[in-house]
Amino acid sequence: MNIVLLSGGSGKRLWPLSNDIRSKQFIKIFKTPEGDYESMVQRVYRQIRKIDGNATVTIATSKTQVSAIHNQLGEHVGISVEPCRRDTFPAIALATAYLHDVQGVREEEAVVVCPVDPYVNEDYFAALKELGQLAEKGNANLVLMGVEPTYPSEKYGYIIPTDKEQVSRVSTFKEKPDVKTAEEYIRCGALWNGGVFAYKLKYVLDKAHELLDFTDYQDLFGKYDTLEKISFDYAVVEKEENIEVMRFAGEWKDLGTWNTLTEAMEEASIGKTILNDQCENVHVINELDVPVLCMGLKDVVVSASPEGILVSDKEQSSYIKPYVDEIDQQIMFAEKSWGSFRVLDVEDESMTIKVTLNAGHQMNYHSHERRDEVWTVISGKGRSIVDGMEQPVQEGDVVTMQAGCRHTLIADTELKVIEVQLGKEISVHDKKKYELEQ
Amino acid sequence: MNIVLLSGGSGKRLWPLSNDIRSKQFIKIFKTPEGDYESMVQRVYRQIRKIDGNATVTIATSKTQVSAIHNQLGEHVGISVEPCRRDTFPAIALATAYLHDVQGVREEEAVVVCPVDPYVNEDYFAALKELGQLAEKGNANLVLMGVEPTYPSEKYGYIIPTDKEQVSRVSTFKEKPDVKTAEEYIRCGALWNGGVFAYKLKYVLDKAHELLDFTDYQDLFGKYDTLEKISFDYAVVEKEENIEVMRFAGEWKDLGTWNTLTEAMEEASIGKTILNDQCENVHVINELDVPVLCMGLKDVVVSASPEGILVSDKEQSSYIKPYVDEIDQQIMFAEKSWGSFRVLDVEDESMTIKVTLNAGHQMNYHSHERRDEVWTVISGKGRSIVDGMEQPVQEGDVVTMQAGCRHTLIADTELKVIEVQLGKEISVHDKKKYELEQ
After folding, report:
1. In chain A, what residues touch B418 (CB-CB under 8 Å)?
2. What mean pLDDT comes out for the span A303-314?
3. For a Cys-Cys bond, which of A207, A351, B121, B415 suits B411, CB 3.0-4.6 Å?
4. A314 pLDDT tier (thresholds 50, 70, 90)
């Protein structure tokens, strides 16, 4: 099975765990069979691997997510990197060209496309495999998955099949309806459109060449920022006559809000938390090192991270976005390809952060114009390079850097340092990168 | 007026703002006429000063509170320091001896004793003044304040006066009753016992000499730890025949729980907070630098500090103590006589803290056996002394100290440093103090 997972952008609906640089699919909140916690993307990847150990998994995503994906899924997962956001048609065209030109997938092979963030069981991935087989059979150019509705939702688009068979021709598509219209659709056998479909690689590659002017993957990648923003539904699906839908009746949840997300949590709380017996339907996710104590709450979600604290009635949590949009705060925590950082203290003319470098990784070689820095190594072994001079560093070593001097840290083992930044205008934008002459 | 304020011990009922080393009376949550925030002790002190600018205010408290009191009330407030906790009779005896022997208060002058933490208005302090005048008149050995009950509370002891006059003889005292009994008491004109009383200094000094074996204040202070724990009520009040009570009908609140405390807050929130319109009867106190967002909550109190986060139904918040007792966590923030510290990061073999030294103050000259330390000065000017060697320090300077070496910091202006502690067994107990040879 060739499967393309669409990994969407950052979102604020799960603040304070998701923010401008941390997407919800990377938050570790699902208990694994081994008792650890995994993220949405890890869960989906593990489930696919279990159903089809040979599946070629490609994640279509933006540059900003590449390091998070490598951190969570390892270095070997395929990634089709979108140089910028251009909606789903360019993204799927690019991923398809990547499969063909980089991964060597043949034109007659099926490709299954699905979002990275549904909360589903293994039967869902078995259905995806079937969907691919149907596409390969070639009765239709596109085979969609239609989810059997469990209630007349206003949140989804609907697919109207021509009959009630397991696999049917598609009669028409309907936009998100009101509840009454949704009820009518469902009476007529309509299905939710979960954004999942399969096609023979050649089909989308041809469409791409028809609609976009490019020679191969590298060429398309290079001119990606010139492409028009257009959805795959609009550019392809709605114009295609030869199209089928396969019914799926298993569990399928869209975890877009705290309310729906907590429904998928196996435990009432993650992290240092205490809930008294008078709490009812309360979920707590605490990423901080200090405890959260909840008493006598009902239908409430509490989430605490280095970015902030949310305490919300579960239903109200769907309306979070405008409030988070108003919060104007620097990023306090981030995971990067090379490790992570956390802001520990902010003063007018200083900032203290903790930097963790993964073993074998290093910072960019860089300088700042308007701030000095001091590193105190708190654990691990590595090397510092300051203005070309390399020195071994380990726990307890201190490195001071004046503004203007070029510097980097190389981690031989996992390396943790406390970095104190000192200056009048401390900003993430005050950074020049250099090539390291080694 | 000579007034003794009894400042009680640490409490956990207002966790995470109060803890083992930070008592509720020092939390700044009341809006001042100028728009700043003040603590219970600051509010009471300001109110007394307003009613009687010449009042001699003495705070009877333990050693651990002395620096907090000086920080909040200045260096000139009188403090009768209890070397250890020995209940209210020894405390009041010590404070009375302190007034006589140290402050030079004459034996015929009245002393008014009251707890430091009632939430009251200025009429209360006007009543205290009257109480003192009654004591000086000498119709009775003790004059109590009786608070007119507003409901049949089970939380307070009751005073039964002989009649319904403004000032009456006391007929008897009653322990905390159940609601029904309380209703009966109130029908008979009973008053709440708020623990407030006045006497001529000589009266308690004589009682003290009668019950305790000591010569003067210094002697009593020196043998304080040998005294029996006994309450003033038990040792004196309940045995005294010649006793009056004065009625007080003004506002009087006991702010012992989050529920009652939030009733006294003028605003719904303090600190970085966002409450949506669907919140009802919600109070938030946020001491962290990151925002707290509350949505759709009802009758809830949220409090966040470096120690942890409480989210509680207001009524349930009265039952907090056993849950906080279970939390086993190091102190993350403290205010000291010399300034404050906050723990920023804890790892297995390192701890990073931010130390703020007030101008003119310094640390003890000390050493650690099992940890190295690194200071990075982030603001201010001062001097470091390391193994006898004094050096000026300012923003950006780094001082490294090996285990065993003696060190201190002296703040000429307010001085802030990031201190990284490195070692296998970091503990507050690993500290030797030395005299500084200067």
Report:
1. 345, 352, 418, 420
2. 96
3. B415
4. very high
Q: Nearest CA of chain B to the CA of A371: how many Å?
A: 10
Single out the residue of A70, A61, A198 nearest to residue A133, CA to CA.
Answer: A198
- Tally: H helices and E strands in chain A: 10, 30
Inter-residue contact A112 to A215 (CB < 8 Å):
no
* pLDDT tens-digit series, residues A71-97: 899 888 999 999 998 999 999 999 999
Instruction: Give tens-digit pLDDT for A248-293.
Output: 999 998 788 898 889 888 889 999 999 999 999 999 999 999 999 9
Give CA–CA dist B63/B20, Å, rounded: 13
Window 297-336 of B, Cβ < 8 Å to A: 297, 300, 302, 304, 306-313, 315-317, 319-320, 323-324, 326-327, 329, 332
Residue B21 sits at the chain A interface (C-beta within 8 Å): no
Q: Cα–Cα distance between B97 and B58 in angstroms, integer?
A: 12
Q: How many C-beta neighbours within 10 Å does residue B136 have?
A: 15
Number of A/B CB contacts below 8 angstroms equals 189
User: CA B328, CA B69: separation in Å to the nearest integer?
Assistant: 27
Q: Does the beta-carbon distance from B291 to A311 stay under 8 Å? A: no
**Angle (nearest 5°) at CA B217 between B215 and B220:** 70
CB B80 within 8 A of CB B101: no
CB contact under 8 A, B309 and A291: yes
Residues 6+ apart with CB under 8 A from A402: A372
Q: Note which residues in 114-143 of chain B have CB less than 8 A from chain A.
A: none
Mean pLDDT for B305-334 is 91
Task: Reduce the DSSP state of residue B88 to 3 states and report it.
Answer: helix
- Enter the tokens of residue A162: 């021509």
Query: CA-to-CA distance for A161 and B138, rounded, in angstroms?
Result: 98
Strand order in the sheet with B407-411: B389-394, B381-386, B407-411, B365-367, B432-434
H/E element holding B93? helix B88-101
Contact A418 B420 (CB under 8 A): yes
Torsion sign (Cα): B316, B321, B325, B331: positive
Cα separation of A248 and A134, whole Å? 14
Closest listed residue to residue A47, CA positions, set A130, A120, A113: A120
Query: Distance (Å, rounded) from C-alpha A274 to C-alpha A424?
Result: 42
Q: Which residues contact A109 (CB under 8 A, 6 or more apart)?
A: A2, A136, A200, A201
Residue B24 has pLDDT above 90, yes or no: no
Which letter, b or e, does each residue of B83-98 get, where b requires 16 or more Cβ atoms within 10 Å of its Cβ? Answer: eeebbbbbbbbbbbbb
Tokens 């080393």 found at: B21
- Identify the bridge partners of residue A169 per DSSP, sorted by sequence position: A244
| Residue type, position B319, single letter | Y
Q: Which residues of B touch A330 (CB under 8 A)?
A: none
Dihedral sign for Cα A178, A183, A186, A187, please. Answer: negative
Q: Which two tokens stand for residue A106?
A: 């043949």
Nearest CA to A21 out of A60, A66, A52 is that of A66
Out of A309, A323, A420, the one facing B276 most closely (by C-beta) is A323
Rounded to whole angstroms, the Cα distance separating B7 from B63 reads 11
**DSSP bridge pairs for B252:** B120
pTM of the model: 0.85
Beta bridge partners of A374: A400, A420
The CA distances from residue B107 to B97, B100, B202, in Å, are 10, 7, 5
Report which secondary-structure segment, H or E, holds B3: strand B2-6
Give percent above pLDDT 70 in chain A: 99
Closest CA to B342 of B355, B328, B326, B357: B355
Across chain A, which distance is largest between two alpha carbons, in Å? Answer: 74
Instruction: Please tell me the distance from the alpha carbon of residue B199 to that of residue B4, in angstroms, as a whole number.
Output: 11
The whole-angstrom separation of Cα A309 and Cα A18 is 12
